[in-house]
Amino acid sequence: MATRILSPLCSSIKKSLQSFGAQAYSTAPVSSFKASDVEITRTTNPAPKPEVSTLKFGHHFSDHMLEIDYTSTAGWGKPRICPVHNLSLHPAAKCLHYAVELFEGMKAFRGDDDRIRLFRPMENMQRMLRTSERSCLPLFDGRELVELIKKLISIDADWPQLGVSRSSSATLFVLIGPVGPYYPTGMAPVKLLADPKFVRAWPGGSGGFKMGSNYAPTMAVQNVAAEKGCQQVLWLFGDDHQLTEVGAMNLFTFWLLEMFGAGTACVVSPVEGVLYNGEMLKIPTMTNPYVTNRCMKELLDIQLK
Ligand SMILES: *Cc1c(COP(=O)(O)O)cnc(C)c1O
Q1: How many structural domains is the chain composed of?
Q2: Is 303 helix (H, G, I), strand (E, B) or coil?
Q3: Which residue, of 46, 68, 134, 166, has the greatest Cβ tally within 10 A?
Q4: Nearest residue (CA) to ligand 1, atom 10
Q5: Is residue 183 domain-resident?
């Protein structure tokens, strides 16, 4: 292991990140809102439910949202579950200028037994708290937020299938809604653009956090990929062009036989080609997608059981 000299700022960030990992789920008191304080206002005007067969990804939202305000002087206010409404922001709001914001994406599934289960929500809470700390947004007790999300989902449970996502003074809000497939073409294999000229994340940067500032710079690269007939970007890093991730998914490779992206949103997305140095390298994933299908099956089995 290499020893390095870190600036005081870096070492204090590192220290607090390490300590935070432990703190998020310990019983140590974190200044937080409490799920038991929630105030609920139900809609008098429920929206019509979309047809399950026509669901698109990220297009539908249920009737209610969760909202919690924070100020550095008063701390967290009471959580409110209320009808979905637009936000009203001062034009100087920091999120508009400096991307001081964060988000999480989580899925909930209705099982054959009609019970609704969240997909490993604690992992999302840990990441959300890490990202809060990295963006200097206020911390909270992740267990309280999971309790509130459960409450919100139970209120909007008659929406067919639910996905969950949320984003000095701050507002924490949670929106839920049913989702269709991330890729409308289903398990169709994708081609990736791998161009070392574009770098998404680097050591010492903030690429490992779910902050808005990591996504805006990728939109134009996604367009370059589309112009070259690719559906996604394979992000490379370093002089030796290491594979890091694909689009906003984690990348999996099985020798030179199979390659696929996987994440909460897309589940599994097989790769059939990589455009690298102007040459389309063929990846034979679909010839015998053994590992790809096994991963898909494992994930679907957890969703629906
Ligand atoms: C959200 C995200 C992922 C996938 O993480 P999940 O835990 O599956 O949601 C991977 N890469 C990036 C850049 C992301 O934003």
Answers
A1: 2
A2: helix
A3: 68
A4: 249
A5: no
